[in-house]
Structures are given as C-alpha cells and as structure tokens.
Design goal:
The chain is of the alpha+beta class and 455 residues long. The protein folds into four domains: 7-190, PAS domain (Beta-Lactamase); 205-296, PAS domain (Beta-Lactamase), CATH 3.30.450; 301-394, Helix Hairpins, CATH 1.10.287; 406-452, no CATH class. The chain contains eleven helices and 14 strands. The strands form three sheets. Strands 1, 2, 3, 4, 5, 6 and 7 form a seven-stranded antiparallel beta sheet that branches.
Length: 455
C-alpha cells in the first residue's frame, strides 16, 4: 500500500492541515492586534514626549524670557544712559551660557534716523567678547512688528557664523512707561543658542532611532538631527528637493499650528515612520516626534518569529505524535484489511485479528468474521452440491450412452439394393430422453418403422 493512500497519512494530513490553519490564523490575528496596540502605544508615547518636550522648552525659554522682560520693565520705568545700558547688555549676556548675545536699541539715544546706535555684546563660554552688527533692515523689521503686536516675539532661526551655531532672537519692546499702551521707546533682544536644545532633547529618546525635530513658523529648522538640509532652507524646499509631497503637507500643517499624527517616510532616513506634531504656542515653533516603524515593530517581528519557530517545533511534535497515535489506533484496521485481502485471495481460513473493542473497529471485525464463517459454510455446501451434481451428471452421461447405444446408426447395410436412403436423428432435450426409434423389414417390399415418444 502506498503511503499517500494509507488511512494514517490521510487522517494525519487532514488533522495537521486544520492545526496549521488555526495556528496561522492565530499568529496573523496576534500580529495584527499587537501591531495595532504597539502603534497606539507609540502614539501615546509620541504625544507624551512631544508635550514633555514643549514643557521643557517652555520652561527653558521662560528662564531666558523672564529676565529680559524684567529688564524691559525696568528700562520702561527708569531712564538709563549709555553706560548703564551697556552694563545691562553685559549682565544679560553673561547670565546664561545658552545666551550668545544681547542687544538694546533705545530711541532716546539713537533717534529714528538710519544711523542706528546700538549696544551689542557676544558672550562665549571662554568669556571672550565679540560684537555683531545688526543690519538696519533687520532692526526695522523688528521695530515694525513690535509696533503692530506690541508683544515680545521670537524671530526665525538664523545661522550665526560668529559662534557657528543656529540661534533665535527674543525681542521685547520698551515703552516710555511701564504701561504697554504708551509710546514704544525701543527694544531689548537676546540671541539664544539652539545647540543646547538639540542636546537636551536627546534625553527624551525612547527608541534607538527615534528623534525630535522642531521647525519655525516659516518651516526653517530649529532642531534637526543630521545634515539633510542646510540651516538656510526650509522643510518645503526639502520636500520639493526630494520630491515628497507628504513632507510638504506635513510642513504646512506644522507651520499653521496644527497638531496630529502622520505616517510617512521621514526626511532624515527616508524610512516609514509615525510622526506626531504639536505647536509651541509661545514661539510659533512646532515640535515633531518621529518613530521609525521598523524599530517600533521590531519587538513584534522578533516575537512573531519566535512564536512561529515555537509553533513550527510544536507542529513537528504534533506530527510525530499524530503519526504514532494514528498508527496505533489504525493497527486493528490494517490487520483486518490484511485478513480481508487473504479472504479475497481465496484463503477462507485466514486467521482474524484478536480485537475485543466495542467501537466501530470491533463491530467491523465481528461482521467480517461472521461473513468469513458463512462464506466457509457456503463454500463447503457448494462443493458438496457440485460433487453431487457431477455424480448425477456422470450417471446421466452413462445412461445417455446406454440409451444412444440402443439406437441404430449404420443404415448402409439395410438400404443396400433398395431404391431408398434411410437416416434418423434423436436429440434428447436433456441428458437422457425417453424417446426411441427403430426400423426393420416386414417383407421383401415392406419396411416397418417404430418410434417411441415419452410423454
């Protein structure tokens, strides 16, 4: 018997197919559910990290903003001369290593002419001082915006070639009095180094490849890992450069102050990532947290591989146990099959297997044994009947030969010299008939025929 046609193989194949289907369905279901849970968990982490980052940035900026606002109120309430202004500038600059420089512009000392007089001092970690010129165009744009909003604001980030870092300027208006409804008398500004911000945000990492980026309202990078685009470009220019409209749309949403999730290839590594973004209201910046999906789902992939490997091992163990169990359970059937095969070959005395179970196999064995016994009896009776028939047929054959021996078969002697021919035929309907015929001369010119018919 070929293995593929055996009952053990067929049952094992069916059972294992069902087990494999159920196991595969469980693995796929587990993968999908776990993937959804991991993504939801990543979204919560992204929201938490983003809001934590915004809180940290707001706290750090508040440390910088409050002294400047304090000096602004002081200068609005008290008239200070050039020497005092210079001392205030120095005091602001050396107050924190996060501040790269400070600047005061006072209308009373400089006038409204294009010949701008200002006080500016740069502060380095090694405490060397360098001056930086503020262009009239830049100063005029600051003044113009302050006259409209009459509120402090953060400028767009710019690369400062003197310190070799990205900086953003915090500009606060000065008024004739402490009342902000009065006429503006100047401004006070500080340059904030942004490198510390990038270093500080590294502490908020959850995965190896996740990162935080910050862009300004115009899409300029405030904090950005790597060197994918220069400090003078924007996220929109990058999106056009790499022909990625999804990043362009993300930049539009972030620049407009929206918050939410996006799933797209990130602009640093180009990997499929989950991005959560939210604005920093005090600066009009927007923070984005990027989780590469490959790393986000790495544990899921590893778990699935382990689960699949364990499942495959379990599948092989199930296969072995099923084959062993099926071979044991189908052994009576195999012995019955062998006995039935012998009976089919004519060996009616083939021994039947010793099976005493009450299940279908036991019933089949009893039925086959009963059939065997009846078949043996039938064959014996058939042999006996056949022998009896052969005996009768032999006797009938002898009787037929005796009967046919009484009949004349040679007519040539009788018809010699006579102008006639004689022939006769007797064919019994069965082995022996009761009919008879004969002929003889009555005289020289007369012949007699005798025919006997059994009715």
């Amino acid at each position: 018997m070929r293995v593929r046609n055996s009952l053990t193989f067929k049952l094992s194949f069916i059972i294992l197919s069902v087990v494999l289907f159920i196991f595969t369905a469980i693995v796929i279901f587990n993968f999908k559910v776990t993937q959804k849970l991991l993504v939801e968990d990543a979204k919560k982490n992204a929201q938490y990290i983003t809001r934590l980052t915004i809180s940290q940035i707001s706290d750090e900026l508040g440390i910088v903003e409050e002294p400047v606002k304090l000096f602004s109120r002081y200068l609005s309430e008290n008239k200070a001369g050039p020497g005092q202004l210079k001392r205030i500038v120095d005091l602001i600059a050396v107050n924190s290593d996060k501040i790269s420089g400070s600047f005061i512009y006072d209308f009373h000392h400089s006038g409204d002419s294009t010949d701008v007089t200002y006080y500016y001092r740069y502060y380095y970690n090694n405490k060397t001082n360098k001056k930086k010129n503020v262009s009239n165009k830049q100063l005029s744009s600051w003044i113009q915006k302050l006259k409209i909003t009459r509120k402090p604001f953060w400028s767009e980030p710019e690369y400062d070639s003197i310190i070799g870092e990205l900086t953003s300027t915090y500009i606060v208006p000065l008024f004739d009095t402490a009342d902000s409804d009065k006429k503006m008398s100047g401004l006070i500004a500080i340059d904030l180094r942004l490198l510390w911000l990038k270093e500080s945000l590294q502490k908020n990492k959850v995965y190896n490849s996740d990162y935080i980026f910050i862009i300004s309202k115009n899409g300029k990078p405030v904090v950005l890992p790597g060197n994918r685009f220069d400090y003078g470009s924007t996220i929109f220019q990058l999106a056009k450069k790499i022909n990625n409209p999804e990043i362009y749309e993300l930049g539009k949403k972030m620049s407009s102050g929206e918050s939410g999730f996006a799933e797209l290839p990130d602009f640093i590594q180009g990997k499929s990532s989950l991005i959560y973004y939210e604005p920093i209201l005090s600066t009009n910046w927007s923070v984005g947290v990027v989780f590469p999906k490959a790393e986000l789902l790495q544990k899921l992939y590893t778990t699935t591989i382990i689960l699949g490997s364990v499942g495959l091992l379990g599948f092989l163990l199930i296969l072995i146990f099923i084959i062993l169990i099926m071979r044991r359970e189908t052994k009576p059937l195999r012995t019955l099959s062998a006995a039935a095969k012998e009976i089919g070959k004519g060996n009616f005395d083939a021994p039947m297997p010793d099976i005493h179970t009450k299940d279908e196999v036991g019933i089949l064995k009893d039925s086959l044994q009963t059939m065997q016994e009846e078949l043996v009896t039938y064959i014996k009776n058939l042999v006996k009947a056949t022998k009896e028939k052969e005996r009768i047929e032999g006797e009938l054959q002898i009787a037929q030969e005796i009967q046919m021996g009484y009949l004349r078969r040679d007519f040539s002697d009788f018809s010699t010299g006579l102008n006639l021919d004689i022939s006769a035929l007797l064919k019994p309907a069965k082995e022996v008939g009761g009919d008879y015929y004969d002929y003889f001369k009555i005289s020289e010119d007369k012949i007699g025929f005798a025919i006997g018919i059994k009715t």
